[in-house]
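Sanity check. The docking grid for 6-O-phosphono-alpha-D-fructofuranose depends on where the pocket ends up, so I'm generating a full predicted complex first rather than guessing from homology. Inputs follow.
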Amino acid sequence: SESENIRTDLITLTRFIIEEQQRLAPDASGELSLLLNSLQYAFKFIAHTIRRAELINLIGLYGQTNSTGDDQKKLDVIGDEIFINAMKGSGNVKVLVSEEQEDLIIFESNSGNYAVCCDPIDGSSNLDAGVSVGTIFGVYKLLPNSNGTIKDVLRSGNEMVAAGYTMYGASAHLMLTTGHGVNGFTLDTHLGEFILTNPNLKIKDNKFIYSINEGNSFYWSNEINDYINSLKKPCIENNNKPYSARYIGSMVADVHRTLLYGGIFGYPGDSKSKTGKLRILYECFPMALLLEQAGGMAVNDNGDRILDLIPEKIHQRSGIWLGTKSEIEKLLTFIKK
Ligand code: P6P
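Predicted complex below; grid placement will be based on this.
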């Protein structure tokens, strides 16, 4: 009957955060839990705004460019403002790095102990085409006795205490790790709650998918061209079929598919941009942490672990490869110096 398939014991993100805190850090202050709740508020607000954007025609160029020279869409600006206000309003965030802000933001009036690095709406160049975009975030606890300086964020990715993304597609999907595995949540817009839908998510074994912008292949190194070309040949482990190519051009969407289906995603450096396009603090580190926590791997163009990098500038870029462990290990046989 109808009543049989109504779940009445939903695990909301709020409940999940509290239960995780009690399970993993019973004597914690609860500040990170409060911060995660402020983050989910920002995601709900951005999700709502993106949905309305189609209707109230927010789509289109805002007519300015952001600190890194990309054409800025109106939604980029609004997503950034929503995020800044949510982090300021949380009271727990002292330092904020945003792709849309050239300089670090220090919330002087906040007494919080956390620094957040974010890309408020990554992939926004695809917005007009209705492609899924997302918010990517990483969280550091301030260094001991710090009052909030750039030193709190120019650190290895191993020191991030939480990271993840929210992809705004048909539904809003949040993938979150606090260093104890990855859990996926889906926004129920009627309840206004993120509901646990992918508990303890682990990346699938290889689905023989590669995800890269082949339009850059003329500029790739020989090693990378050799690796990608090797995937185009029928291979025994894939029933004598070549790999499938899947590239959306929105990192959150490409990484989400990689997490759920397996395979490899790459945005390598090349002869025209040595350090690639993706930013260490708010694209590479959060995705690398998620993939490792889901049983995958993430390395740079030298085969070094992404999380071991230490950025010297807040918008510093790095080449990145992430995905199924066995696939990354195959890549390493081509690129390991
Ligand atoms: P390309 C989107 O603009 C973005 O920052 C990432 O989301 C995406 O992975 C990448 O750039 C796509 O770049 O050069 O392939 O269009």
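Relevant for the grid: The first strand starts at residue 61 and ends at 65.
Also worth noting: The longest helix spans residues 31-55.
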